[in-house]
Amino acid sequence: MIRSSVQAPGAVIMVRPHHFTVNTETAADNAFQANVAPDASHAKQAYAEHSRAAEVLRDHGVRVHVFEGDNPETPDCVFPNNWFSTHAGGHVAVYPMKAANRRLERRQDILEMLKSDYRVQDIIDYSGLEADGLFLEGTGAMVLDHIERVAYAVESDRTNPIALERFCTHFNFEPMVFAAADTSGASIYHTNVLMCIGTGYALISTAMITDPARRAEVVARLEASGRDVIDLTDAQIAQFAGNAIELMGREGPVLALSQTAYDALTGDQIARIQAHAEPVPLEIPTIEMAGGSVRCTIAGIHLTSRI
Questions:
Q1: Please, where are the H alpha helices in the chain?
Q2: Mean per-residue pLDDT for 176-182?
Q3: At 292, is the secondary structure helix, strand, or coil?
Q4: How far apart are CA 273 and CA 255, in angstroms?
Q5: Going by DSSP bridges, is the β-strand pair 150-154/142-145 parallel, antiparallel, or unpaired?
Q6: I need a labelling partner for 274 at 20 to 30 A (CA). Which of 26, 63, 71, 252 fits?
Q7: pTM
């Protein structure tokens, strides 16, 4: 079993929601959001689900830094991976967000913790691009192959090509952009609902990549990296099977995904994942109503610890 991988961080940041609700500002282009009326019980349920998920990850040896999301004006604060990312060598990126209320999720205390507990060389802040209507929503907009240095990105209003090019230039990634839609023709809003890249495998719905030639290029690129490409169906994507993240646990790699996603996988797919990592299902059905799943709730820390 692999004990370390630049793809799989051993530490993460999670933001526990206190005022969780489905964000009306993001509903227009997020087909994964549930159409539900506000309910006070959702906040309590989401808080409990998140607390338990963090503990399960800790039980597997992942270092989890939990911050409290107590600002009632940030209903999506539980999804911190969209506003920042961290990178080997001590680099941090801060991203421009499309929804105005999501911009309030950016927190100086999280950046200060990173500088205190980990070796941070610089923080590159792209949030000023919001004034020009240019958005790049972090590791939601991009699925990063940290080994091969490829940034896979679905075309959308949340993934501006200019912002993407700037990120790739600064952080030494090659952009690989493609259009993607579900069987009803609805565009995919974030790349990380479509695919997940682990150290030795990748989960992806190839059928959702609308251009056949580009689809073949994406698959070929993943296969050229030596990964087992595990194809997901449209129905599995709808159950968040692509919204997972490989982390490094005490005994080796684990694949953090939701119970909803795990239950959607076939026995063969699970066996292929198990050849590389231990699947760790987390029960977060209330949080998933907001249109994101386990991957969205986790911001990986690809930095060197000072401890």
A1: 40-59, 108-117, 138-141, 161-171, 212-224, 234-238, 259-264, 267-274, 285-288, 294-297
A2: 96
A3: coil
A4: 8
A5: antiparallel
A6: 63
A7: 0.94
